[in-house]
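2024-03-11 09:14:02 DEBUG pipeline.ingest accepted 1 chain
2024-03-11 09:14:02 DEBUG pipeline.ingest length=104
2024-03-11 09:14:03 DEBUG pipeline.predict start
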Amino acid sequence: MLTLYYKESCPFCQRVLQMAENLKVELDLRDVASDESQLVELIEKQGHGEVPYMFDTEKEVAIDESSDIIEYMRENYSKGAIASPASMKPKIHVGGSVCESCEG
């Protein structure tokens, strides 16, 4: 099981979350901003509280860079990834905006 420590407000976390959705990878989500006990747990595992941070409980692998997390998910956990390379790019919107090209 992949456990992801994240914050909703973190664009790098949003990138990982979007790619997990695109790749159909299940994540056990731990929001460190809304649950202080999750932050304490993250600090115990990682040594500091930076997100995103992913821990693979099956393989005992820890990764703390968004691009490395995405690559790891692609190589080890992708279930029927979307075929189009363009659709594999994360869809990130700053300030809550939505564009028509991502919605349709």
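2024-03-11 09:14:41 DEBUG pipeline.report The chain has one domain: 2-103.
2024-03-11 09:14:41 DEBUG pipeline.predict end
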